Amino acid sequence: SQQGEEDPQALSIQEGENATMNCSYKTSINNLQWYRQNSGRGLVHLILIRSNEREKHSGRLRVTLDTSKKSSSLLITASRAADTASYFCATDTDRGSTLGRLYFGRGTQLTVWP
Amino acid sequence: DGGITQSPKYLFRKEGQNVTLSCEQNLNHDAMYWYRQDPGQGLRLIYYSQIVNDFQKGDIAEGYSVSREKKESFPLTVTSAQKNPTAFYLCASSRGKALAGVYTYEQYFGPGTRLTVT
């Protein structure tokens, strides 16, 4: 089934550094979303970018979308230890029959060291 | 205080027993979802429901069953037919939001239930 794939699987950085995670997907989409999951918890929505947008910002988060390459990136600037979590991209599909369904990747595990 | 709740947080069962996981939301969302998450894996969709009294199978529905008798509630039963039921189960809900003529569905997740079957 359609699924985003994040890269890298794991990322380890020092506080203050920037963290970049990438996501690739397979089919046409209406929008792409990024979620965060702290260990043992539910996912929390971070940001949504529509297929006609190329870049979006929210606080220290910057998301880009390249629909020609079917890829997206999530940049977290000036990382903090509290950013340690797994980050997932999720895509919908432009097929109406599965309206509302999201397809999640396997996630990137980010560790930020103090 | 609006949100989505799952209970219990931890659940232990013997092999061969059916077990039902609870999911309740007071966000007035039409759509609800059940996912399974295994270590190092992403989320795999078990079942989803876009409206009361209707639901669809996801990618891994075998060995699971659901009901959607009320908008607020979407319980998941893990049956004895599920060969490897030990996992972290996440429930989510969403409501379509129109943006420039296209609906987007941001999902709100519960805290999860960790099921261990021995």
Describe what this molecule looks like in 3D.
- The complex is a heterodimer of chains A (114) and B (118).
- Chain A is built from no helices and eleven strands.
- Chain A has 114 residues and is an all-beta fold.
- In chain A, strands 2, 4, 5, 9, 10 and 11 form a six-stranded mixed β-sheet that branches. In chain A, strands 1-3-8-7-6 form a five-stranded antiparallel β-sheet, with no helix packed on it.
- In chain A, a hairpin with a 4-residue loop joins strand 7 and strand 8 (71-76).
- The model of chain A has no long low-confidence stretch (mean pLDDT 91).
- Chain B is built from no helices and 13 strands.
- In chain B, the strands form three sheets. In chain B, strands 2, 4, 5, 6, 9, 12 and 13 form a seven-stranded mixed β-sheet that branches. A four-stranded antiparallel β-sheet of chain B has the order 1-3-8-7, with no helix packed on it.
- In chain B, a hairpin with a 5-residue loop joins strand 4 and strand 5 (43-51).
- The A-B interface holds A 1, 3, 30-31, 33, 35, 40-45, 48, 50, 52, 88, 90, 92, 99-102, 104-107 and B 4, 31, 33, 35, 40-43, 45, 48, 50, 58-59, 88, 90, 92, 94, 96, 99-100, 102-112, 114.
List the helices and strands and how they pair.
The complex is a heterodimer of chains A (114) and B (118).
Chain A: E1 5-7, E2 10-14, E3 19-24, E4 31-37, E5 43-50, E6 55-58, E7 61-66, E8 71-76, E9 85-91, E10 103-104, E11 108-113
Chain B: E1 4-7, E2 10-13, E3 19-25, E4 31-37, E5 43-51, E6 54-57, E7 64-66, E8 76-78, E9 87-94, E10 97-99, E11 102-104, E12 108-109, E13 113-117
Parallel strand pairs in B: 2-13
Antiparallel strand pairs in B: 1-3, 3-8, 4-5, 4-9, 5-6, 7-8, 9-12, 9-13, 10-11
